Amino acid sequence: MKLFLGILLFVLIIVSARFRKFAAVAVLVGITVVLLVWQYQEYARDSVKSKILPVELVLQHISIKPSTNSDDYEMTGRVINNSERYTLNGLLLNVIAKDCRDNEPIDCLVVSEQKENVYITIPPRQARDFRKNIYLYSHQTIKDNLVWDYSIQYVTAE
Predict the structure, then answer these.
(1) SS3 string of the chain?
(2) In terms of domains, do 59 and 42 share one?
(3) pTM for the full model?
(4) Do 73 and 146 sit in the same domain of this protein?
(5) How far apart are CA 68 and CA 51, in angstroms?
């Protein structure tokens, strides 16, 4: 059946000038619709990220400690949503682990840098505690003291 329809369309394109014009217009309209839908999806995805700015959030009591039952680490803390209108749905943290000698920030070697999603719902002007497991994805031996640095990449909100 599909083969028959393909042959029929091919014959119509070769034989009929009106069908060629119709097919060209249909292809152009289809491409335009696909591009418009794609642009709208990009706009909707970016607008979710721009409702709450990272500066409107406060991270408090952040601690990163070795987990008791595995080789990963546990990040705990509190997130405060200072937005007046929007509910926080999640945030992307950039987490950096450094091996530092004598806790001096000058003499450090970065052993891990990764992005971690924290899925949390926080209404406007409220706070929630969170817990996130962080795995270093390497089996490097930490020689000195592990120093952590973190920052908010972006926020998703509704």
Answers:
(1) CHHHHHHHHHHHHHHCHHHHHHHHHHHHHHHHHHHHHHHHHHHHHHHHHCCCCHHHEEEEEEEEEECCCCCCEEEEEEEEECCCCCCEEEEEEEEEEEEEHHHCCCCEEEEEEEEEEEEEEECCCEEEEEEEEECCCCCCCCCCEEEEEEEEEEEEEC
(2) no
(3) 0.65
(4) yes
(5) 37
Q: What is the pLDDT of residues 51-91, one digit of tens each?
A: 788 888 999 999 988 887 777 889 999 999 998 888 998 89
- CA–CA separation, 58 and 81 (whole Å): 7
Residue owning tokens 């950039």: 94
Pairing state between β 73-81 and 126-134: antiparallel
78 CA to centre of own chain: 20
Q: Are residues 63 and 35 in the same domain?
A: no
